[in-house]
Amino acid sequence: MKRTVNGACPLDCPDTCAWQIEVEDGRAVRMRGRKDHPYTRGSLCGKVNRYLDAVYAPDRLTVPLRRVGAKGDGRFQEIDWDEAIGLTAAALQTTIDRHGAEAILPYYYAGTLGAVQGWSLGQRLFKHLGATELDTTICDAAAYAALRVTTHRPVGPDPEDFVHARLILVWGANLLSSNMHQWHFIHAAQQNGAHVVAIDPLPTDTAARCDQHLQLLPGTDGALAMGLMGELLAAGACDEEWLAECTVGWPELRERLADWNTARAAEICGLDVGEVQGLADRIITTRPTAIRMGLGLQRHGGGGAAYRAITVLGAVTGDFRHVGGGVLAETSGRFDPVTVDLKEPADLPLPPARTINMSRLAEALTAEAQDPAVHALVVWNTNPGATAPDQVRVQRGLRRDDLHITVLEHRLTDTALFADVVLPATMQTEHLDIHPSYGHHYLTLNLPAIDPVGQCLPNTEIFRRLATALGQTHPRLHDSDEELVRQFLDTDEARERDITFERLRETGYAAIDDRTGTAPHAHGDFPTSDGRLHITVPALADAGLDPIPGYTPSFEGADTVLAQRWPLILISPAHRFFLNSTFADLPGHLHMTGAPTVFLSPNDAAARGIEPGDQVEVANDRGAFRCLAAIHPHARDGVAWSYKAYWAKDGDGNNVNATTPVRDADMGGAPTFHDNRVEVALLRQTAPAAGIAVAEAVGD
Ligand SMILES: Nc1nc2c(c(=O)[nH]1)N[C@H]1C(S)=C(S)[C@@H](COP(=O)(O)OP(=O)(O)OC[C@H]3O[C@@H](n4cnc5c(=O)[nH]c(N)nc54)[C@H](O)[C@@H]3O)O[C@H]1N2
Ligand SMILES: Nc1nc2c(c(=O)[nH]1)N[C@H]1C(S)=C(S)[C@@H](COP(=O)(O)OP(=O)(O)OC[C@H]3O[C@@H](n4cnc5c(=O)[nH]c(N)nc54)[C@H](O)[C@@H]3O)O[C@H]1N2
Ligand SMILES: [Mo]
After folding, report:
1. Which structural domain range is residue 416 located in?
2. Quick check: 613 and 686 in contact, CB under 8 A?
């Protein structure tokens, strides 16, 4: 029997594609994008096209496991579900009895963006128990904190309206890799004559398709935004009328901008002043200008300040007046009024508890001073063994004998390797979920297409069973998946738009608003209390931050003393064919990515006697990893890169995160992955005939 089932790509990516799965005799045989979807328009990316390989992969976890060897040895024994749930419940109860509930750390992130499998019953259970709260900072916390004080939630122009822009700045985002469907709208504008500019320290494939590339020094974006605004002021090109109507705190910034111009910005950014002036002139004369800010630029010490400054640049020009003008980072703020946060239902008692910043996991698991120390760790939808900073310390923590670890997973990841109990979870083909998006304005329902593979269970069912084993009977801990979907849509806004479970079951997806083709902020209407965009924020002074937008230098990137020991700034961005560490164990994906590689400029390679294909070690005071070297003709001297989230256990036990710091950015407690100084040393030269496959830089 053959049928087609509507679903959603679950991955942590702005595009949240609507997909359809063809099922034949109970097996998913084909997957394709929905052609009628206005944003994703029928195409799936190179990695998700192969999602079914991951579903049916021979290394998929299909039975619960318990550890039999030493931690991290990778020796496990198959057990049944009752024993697996019993072991975890017993470890949690013992931890509560001996050390208190705060000695439990639930650790989760966005392995799925689904509201049901990602952000519901697990959080409810651990909050209800009084376990430590997790501050989920690992990805966009600096951006979020900056936008919280500026517009309260991430909003901005509709991403589809970028077609109307005449000048587009792609700022700190490699869209062709990490938000590929947005490129369609930018390319359409480009074909209509729009000028498209990439602002990125790396020669990405996206930058190669832009009309201009400002290859600035990492972590200097705040200075660039300030310099551009200084020129706007000098040219009398600030939209004083819009600023007066729709913002607060412009006069304070205007005064500061007298000190900023393109010459000052160019010097800080390591750019040619003519190039920066050229951009300033274009911004002064081109309406609408649209800015798409990525997250790469906020993984630096001054990332929050940079995000504020760039957002304010879009206000100073008055571009929010125009359809397709203004600044867009994420669309997630649009979903808040339409949907319900499932993590904290009003009728579930949630005792107060301490909070641990997930980006500081290395410290949380190893520091002496924790009170109480973490003695039980439950991990789902994330793989910190590969993706958290300061990996050497993370691994030391995961190896602790007095730490019980349960991991809910699809595969035996760098984290599951250290688990005491591994619980096999269903994939998107096998469970119900509903998906907002951080890159467009559609809600997507995912229907299960096939029965669970092996004995896999949905995260939600695992947490229901765990609650039962712990004697927790509150009904909000036992809601069914369908009840959770209905709770998610239980808002007046959703009802007004007839966005219901029944309708989504028919249509698959639904637009959450009708903003496409409008200028949503032509008269303010930001989600702030007064509807205005906040330029100067006096309350920031209480947190030791500058109330007026400005430039905050990075930590390691801008440290000239540190640069003498660790001369290269190492950026570790998203790879086109992985999604963080997801897929990074699959042969088909690894075939496309090649082995872990560090990319160097020709001068930096020559100075170290490094040729393409050589084996090298990338190191700093925190740790080291080994990989191949590649040379990119357009890499900037002093700036290297190596893609994030290759599996450490498939390499020499470490990946790029052996070098990245546990150090909070200026805002939001965010990590600073790209603010990382290293040295690269030659280990072994490739014999000319060895023919090692070197990963392609950022090719198509
Ligand atoms: N294919 C694929 N897609 C993904 C992901 C993936 O792993 N693979 N990851 C997903 C996730 S979790 C996220 S958060 C997003 C991330 O996607 P992006 O927002 O694109 O973030 P990054 O890949 O960290 O960096 C983007 C770009 O920022 C540049 N950059 C680094 N430092 C600076 C700087 O100081 N200034 C400027 N101007 N640019 C800088 C990098 O060189 C890179 O080209 O993508 C999502 N989509
Ligand atoms: N060096 C460096 N490190 C980085 C970054 C960087 O730029 N540079 N970027 C950071 C960013 S932006 C992010 S968002 C983080 C992301 O890092 P992680 O949150 O660790 O993301 P993934 O590596 O994709 O791991 C997600 C895991 O969830 C599992 N999973 C998916 N769906 C389900 C499910 O339904 N149930 C269960 N039980 N498991 C599921 C997948 O199998 C996968 O192993 O990495 C960060 N790490
Ligand atoms: Mo992320």
Report:
1. 65-138+350-511
2. yes
